[in-house]
Amino acid sequence: MFESLTDRLSDVFSRLRGKGKLSEEDVETGLREIRRAFLEADVNLKVTRTLIDHIREKAIGSEILTSLTPDQMLVKIVNDEIVELLGSDVHPVRYASQPPTVIVMVGLQGSGKTTTTAKLASLIRKEGHRPLLVGVDVHRPAAGEQLAKLGKEIDVPVAVPEAGESAVQVATRGLGSARQYNCDVVLVDTAGRLQIDEEMLGELQNVIAALPVFEKILVIDSMTGQEGVNVGQGFHEAVGIDGAIMTKLDGDARGGAALSLRAAIGVPIMYCGTGERIRDLEVFDPSRMASRIVGMGDVLSLIERAQETMDQKEAEEASKRLLEGTFTFDDWLSQMRSMRQVGSIENILGMLPGGRKMLKQVGQSLPSEAELSHMEAIVLSMTRHERARPEAIDGKRKKRIALGSGTAVSDVNRLLKNFEQARSLAKMLGGGGKGGKNLRKAMKMLGNSSDMKGLLGNGPMQ
Length: 462
What we know:
Blueprint: H1 3-15, H2 24-40, H3 45-60, H4 70-86, E1 101-106, H5 113-126, E2 131-135, H6 141-154, E3 158-159, H7 167-180, E4 185-189, H8 198-210, E5 213-221, H9 226-239, E6 243-247, H10 256-265, E7 269-273, E8 281-283, H11 286-293, H12 299-309, H13 312-324, H14 329-342, H15 345-350, H16 355-362, H17 369-380, H18 384-388, H19 395-405, H20 409-430, H21 435-448, H22 452-458
């Protein structure tokens, strides 16, 4: 998400690079491009106008700091205004002083509401609470089945409709189940429609009236663009929304809904969905999101993800073996799996400062998820001895490995070649006392390699 917007903003900033100071003409030229970039990202027109006015006021009315170049100054101003637009502070779920905390999830059908409800329950459970999932969609049987399956996956109790029950009856029975299961948080997954209608809103209002609701959270598909703002306004006027969760931020959406929602209806974005897995739900941090949008990356979030998924001691030991030239395929397999838990290579690079530019440079050279899976299959087809000593793999062994992994011998050869090249490169960089000379050799080695995919795909994944 925001890929196109980030690229457009980066182009604007780069054009100002090297100027001694910003003139009003420079500012106006840059603002026209920034305005166009936000509108093309499907940001609400009124929101865009307000944003541009604030940037203009700060850019023209401020002196260029001696420590900043003009492009950096504009980056800071734009970044600060986007943070303000998104709400400045984080707004995770709040809990009632007297449990249970009842949270009603609302949204249109197809927004990812049921999955997001389970994701939020999983996150709440990790925080030490005991959630209960209650599905009150009595119109779509598959909704209850989906919620029950998700509840089993995250080990959270679930209450779903029984034959003949109304939505209100399910909701009140679910509240009773919370006391039975000693749950202190109740997450109510309500029915959705393809569009807002009176029947849905009436049923929703009845469910809310029957429960001691503490928070009402709107689940909204980020790919709906400005229409998402209209949906948000509709729900807010009908039942009063306390916050929102944006789903599918890992998709190809232009970002208009995420950038417009808070300014348009005055409620914070609490969380964002970044993938299909249960753990792919993050607290929405305006400052970190703004940093990503202006091309400055989000290293803090990347570090936090890595700390959650990677074993620090194991990573340090693998790094030491890598620099000593004793890194094995078992090490590679462990590190690659840890990296894939953090996210895709594109996602990881996108969270690094300058990562977008790097992605453009390597282009199609990055291995896809399917290609990484093929590499993993090849390694898993090796014996323990072969993974520890790949130099022992002869022609006969290669044929067996290829057959066992469903790949070709040429694929096995390529993996072995690039693994050895990456191991030699790391050993060269780790050679004590020869820093500059080794680095020049390593860069020459990288420059002579035409297989960036092999190096990125088969090198150290950490």
